[in-house]
Amino acid sequence: MFRNAQSGRPPIGLPPVKRLKRSTPTPGGKKPRRPKRTGWRRLIPTWRMTLLGLASALLLGVGLFALGVALVKVPDAHAAATAQSNTWLYSDGSVITRTGQTNRQNVGLDKVSPAAQHAALAAEDRNFYNEGAVNVQGLVRAALNTAKGEGTQGGSTITQQYVKNTYLDQKQSVTRKVKELFIAIKVDATESKDDVLSGYLNTSYYGRGAYGIQAAAQAYFGIDASALSPAQGAYLATLLNAPSAYDVATATPAGKQNAVNRWNYVMDGMVKEGWLGADERAKATFPDVKDPQPNPGLSGQSGYLVNAATQYLTSNNIISETELAKGGYTIKLSIDPTRQQALQDSVQAQLHDTLNPDKRKKDAAAQAGAVSVDPKTGAVVALYGGVDYVKHYVDNATRRDYQAGSTFKAIALAAAFENNAKTQDGRTVTPRTVYDGTSGRKVRGGKGTPYAPPNEGDVSYGQITLQQAIDKSVNSVFAQLAQDTGLQKVKDTGIALGLPAGTPGLDPVPSIPLGAATPSVLDMAGVYATLDNGGKQITPWLVQSVDRAGEAVQLPAHKTTQAISADTANQVTSMLQGVVSDPGGTGFRAQALGRPVAGKTGTTDDQKSVWFVGYTPELVTSVALFGQDPGTGAQVSLSGVGGINGAAGGQFPAQIWTAYMKAALKGQPVSDFPTPADGGDSGASDLPTSPSTPSSTPSTGSATPTTGAGSQQGDGSGTGSTGTGSGGDSGSGGTGTGPTTAPTTAPTTQPTSRPTGRPTPKPTPTTKPTTDPTGQPTTQPTGEAGGSTGTGTGSGG
User: Fold this and answer.
1) I need a surface site. Which of 28, 240, 258, 537 has the fewest CB within 10 A?
2) What pTM did the predictor assign?
3) What are the residues whose beta carbons fall under 8 Å from the beta carbon of 565, sequence distance 6 or more?
4) Range with the poorest average pLDDT among 186-195, 316-325, 600-609
C-alpha cells in the first residue's frame, strides 16, 4: 500500500464512481406513462380531484347562501306576531271555552330600565352586542337535534329569537331554522342592535297572556318596565325560559325552586358581566310577585281544564307555551261533558252546600280536587280543580304539595305481593298474615332508631291480619310491612304504578307507606287505575286531538306497561274491597254505590288533607280535600270544616266519590272484579312462629283504649256502636253513646265466609303503650286506625 511521501500517512481511499446509464427514449420521443391504478386504489380520489371537489363545494355553498339571502324576504312582522284564539272542546266536540286575548304594549328601549335590559342579556345572550346575527355552532346543533327528533334545543342568539318571535312560527323544523338563519342575517344588516333588543323584549312571551316586557311588568309587579329593579328584571328574564313553570304564584314547589335557581343564575351573570355591583347583588332578595288575574272566560271549571291540558301539552313537548299562546289551535280534550257536570254537581251538593264560611270561618279553608279516569285507556273523563278558576287559580287536581296519607298503603301492599315479601320470621306475606297492631310498636329490621308510628288515637289492635289492617288502616302494621318488603322496593313500585319519579317526599324512608309523599290527585288516580287495569300502567292523558289550520298535530302514543303482575293487582284490589265492604272499614260509606268497589281512605298529619281513592271495574275516581288558609295560602287543619270535629277521608271525600260514581255509572251494567289466584283472603290466619317475631307480645284484649271506648266504626256524625269522641276515617266528629266497656276478648279465628269474602268481626282494641314511641319523625303523617272512636288527633287514612 502506498503512503504519502511527505506525511507518511496512507492515501485516502474513495469508493468507485458508478456510471449512470441514460434511459432509452421511447419511440417518437414521448415520456413513459404512469402505471394505471388497480384494485382498491381506483376508489381513492387523487389529491387533485379532492382539491377540485372541495373548491367546487365551497363555491356552490357560497352561491347557494347568497341566493338564499337574496330570495328569502323578511315577512310582515305585524301579521306574523298577532296572536289568535285557541278553541278548547269536550270529547263530544262541544265548546269548553276560547282563549287567546293578547296583552301586548310595545315600548321603546328607553322605556325599559337598564337593569331589565341587562337581565335579559344575562339570561339569554351575554355576548349580544359583540356577535353577529347567528350563533353557527348553536344553530347546527339545534338543527341536527331537531332532525333527529330530540326536541327543542337552545343556542340561538337574541337576534334569532327576535326573528322567531316576530316573523316565524315556533314549529321546530329544519326548514324553519333555515328561514330563521337568512332572515336573521338580513335583520342584523338592516337594524341596529338596540332596535333588535327592543323588538325582542316587546315580542317575547312572559306568561299570564303577557307579550312584551311592559305587559309583563304590569302583570307580575303592577309597575312600568322603566321602573323594574335588577331583582324584578331578573325574574322577568327567568320567565323567558319557562313562563308557567316559573310563575312562583302558581308553580309547584319544585317549579318555585327552579325559578329561584334560574333567578340566581341571571343575577350572578349580571355581576359577572359588570352590570350589577357585588354589594347590590348581596343585598338583593327574590321579588314579591302579584297574584295572577285569570281571564273571565276561564271562570268555573273551564280554567282548570285549560290549565291541566296546557300542562299536558307543554310537559310532553307537544307544543311550546309560546307557540300555544300565539293561538290558532283547536284542542279536543278527553273530558266527557256529562261526567264533568256530574262531578261538579257532586262536589257542590256533598261539600259546598253544607259549608257556611260566614258562620264558620273554618269552612273557607276547604279546597276540593277530584279526577276521574278510564282505567282501560288512561283517558281523564272528568276533573274538578277548585271552586272557580278566577277565584282560586291553583288547580287542586294537579297540585303536588299535600301528603297522600294512607292512600299510599295500597302501593305498600302491591310492593309486598309483587316482591314476595317475607316477615321477620320468614313467613311469606299474604292477606292472612298476622301482624302486631299495637300503636307505637317499634318497627323491626331497620337501621338506626326504630320507627314507631302511633295508630290514630293511639288505639292498639293486638294480633291482626293484614286484611284487617288495611280495612282499619293500622299504621303500625304497614310500617312493619314496608320494612319487611324493603323501603326502596316500595318506592320503586309506586313509580312503576304511575307516580312521577320526582314526586316530592317520595323517599325510601320508614314513613313511606303512611303517605309522606305529595302526589297530585291526578297522580293517585293513575296509580289506582293501574291496579284496576290488571297491573297495566297507562299514564293518564287529557288531550284527544290537536289541529291548527286543518293540520293535525302529532300526539304521543299512550304506552301500556305491565307494571306489576295481574295477580298482584287483583290481590290488592280484593283487599281494598274490604275497606268498603267491611262494616268497620274506613271507606264504608262507598257501599251506597251498590256496586263492587275497591278503595282506600287517607287522612294526613294534623288533618291537613283527607282523601278517598276508589274504583269499580269501569271507572277510577280520586277525591281529596285540602286545608288551605284563604288569606295566606298556608296549609291548615280541616278539623271543624262543616261543623265536624275532626276530618277523615271517609267523610266528605267518600261522600263526593259515591254521589259522582252513581251518576257517572248510571245505566251501565254491574260487573265484578277478577278473583285473585288464591281466591282472596279466605282461609286460616297465618300466625307468627313466636309471640315476639315479628311482633311483640300479642294483646289479650282485656283492656280498653285510654281515651274513649269503642270498637265499632262511627257514622258520618260520629256515632258508633260504642264510645264517644273523635276518630280518624271512622267518622270523627260528633258524639255517640253506648256501653262504656269494650269486649274483653279478641277474636281467635277468622270467619270462613262472608257476603264480600272478608271477615266481619273487627279486632278488639287494647291498651295503648305505657311509654311514648321513640324515633318518630315529628312531621310524618300518622295514618288512621279507622276502627275505633277516641279523642286522639292523629291522622290517618
Assistant:
1) 28
2) 0.71
3) 418, 535
4) 186-195
The distance in angstroms from the start CA to the end CA of the chain is 120
Q: What is the dihedral sign for C-alpha 465, 648, 618, 597?
A: positive
Q: Name the residue with cell 323544523.
A: 173
Q: What is the pLDDT of residues 700-739, one digit of tens each?
A: 333 333 333 333 333 333 333 333 333 334 433 333 333 3
Judged by phi (left if over 0) then psi (alpha if -120 to 50, else beta), residue 47 lies in: alpha
Counts of helices then strands in the chain (DSSP H, E): 21, 16
Q: Give the pLDDT confidence of 404-418 residue by residue, as tens digits.
A: 999 999 999 999 999
The upper half-sphere exposure of residue 489, i.e. CA atoms within 13 Å in the direction of its Cβ, equals: 17
What's at 81, amino acid-wise? A
Q: Which residues contact 95 (CB under 8 A, 6 or more apart)?
A: 87, 88, 89
**CB-side exposure of 178: number of CA atoms within 13 Å?**
11
* Closest by CA position to 478, among listed 520, 415, 419, 547: 415
Q: What is the pLDDT of residue 14?
A: 55
- Contact between 376 and 227 under an 8 Å Cβ cutoff? The reply is no
Annotate 734-751 with DSSP letters as a single string: S-----SS--SS---S--
Interacting residues of 725 by C-beta distance below 8 A, sequence separation 6+ = 457, 707, 708, 735, 789, 790, 791
Percent above pLDDT 70 for the chain: 70
DSSP, res 772? -
β-bridge partners, 690: 693
> Which backbone phi and psi does 721 adopt, to 5 degrees?
-65, -40
